[in-house]
Amino acid sequence: LFKDEEETKSSRYDAGRDGFIDLMELKLMMEKLGAPQTHLGLKNMIKEVDEDLDSKLSFREFLLIFRKAAAGELQEDSGLHALARLSEIDVSTEGVKGAKSFFEAKVSLSTRSQRAEKERSKRRTPGFQLLLQAWCLAWPSGC
């Protein structure tokens, strides 16, 4: 599910843009993949691979789904088995690199978002407002 085109798909499902797939995002993903799950089924899917108990799927936990599928450790009627079967990732080849790229992109996006928020915060400070007012007084057409 995570390579260049898969990255776009996962971004579509990662509505929170936090680099994780939470319960509602997993629900949407499963529906889009044509394998809708019940609320309890979705919770069980996350619980089965949620190593850090944060109730969402990280890069490592996502890969764990495919490791378990490859090892035959998933029940055939489980949501995780359906996800592994329906996803276009081949973890043994390009999938790991693709998944890694997805999460690296998410970290980069998060870092850029944090920088942008710091910049917005700085612009709200009294000192910046004074500079902006001085600028507008000196060059009214620039404001």
UniProtKB/TrEMBL annotation:
<dbReference type="InterPro" id="IPR040365">
    <property type="entry name" value="EFHD1/2"/>
</dbReference>
<dbReference type="InterPro" id="IPR002048">
    <property type="entry name" value="EF_hand_dom"/>
</dbReference>
<dbReference type="InterPro" id="IPR011992">
    <property type="entry name" value="EF-hand-dom_pair"/>
</dbReference>
<feature type="domain" description="EF-hand">
    <location>
        <begin position="13"/>
        <end position="36"/>
    </location>
</feature>
<keyword id="KW-0106">Calcium</keyword>
<dbReference type="GO" id="GO:0005509">
    <property type="term" value="F:calcium ion binding"/>
</dbReference>
<keyword id="KW-0479">Metal-binding</keyword>
<feature type="domain" description="EF-hand">
    <location>
        <begin position="37"/>
        <end position="72"/>
    </location>
</feature>
<protein>
    <submittedName>
        <fullName>EF-hand domain family member D2</fullName>
    </submittedName>
</protein>
<keyword id="KW-0677">Repeat</keyword>
